[in-house]
Specification:
Blueprint: H1 9-20, H2 30-37, E1 47-52, H3 63-82, E2 93-98
């Protein structure tokens, strides 16, 4: 996903909606994003890797919303790691990677 297009919450939701092809009932708010990241029933893949480039630009003017996003990603990673493997179903691996320009300031939640 393109971090430079995620400067506000609408940009974040749009990037996730388009990249993950979120369901049409997606609520365009933080709780809805968190719910979708811990569901993903519409994606038929055993490994989901979220990458966000230019992470230093993501919600750079709103540390509170940036914290919401990072917490939602972290919670999703933990949720999928703890979810038990079910018979006849492959375990889903969910990972998130934030990429930043090496000359940028460190990304902080």
């Amino acid at each position: 996903m393109r971090g430079r297009q995620m400067r506000d919450s609408d940009g974040v939701f749009t990037q996730f909606y388009e990249a993950l092809r979120l369901p049409s009932h997606f609520g365009w708010n933080w709780n809805a994003l968190r719910d979708c990241l811990t569901d993903l029933h519409w994606i038929d893949a055993p490994h989901i890797l979220i990458t966000i480039d230019d992470a230093d630009a993501v919600l750079s003017e709103s540390t509170e919303e940036r914290e919401f996003l990072f917490r939602a990603l972290n919670d999703a990673v933990k949720f999928w790691a703890k979810k038990p493997e079910l018979p006849a179903q492959e375990k889903t691996i969910f990972q998130a990677v934030l990429l930043s320009n090496p000359t940028s300031a460190p990304v902080r939640a």
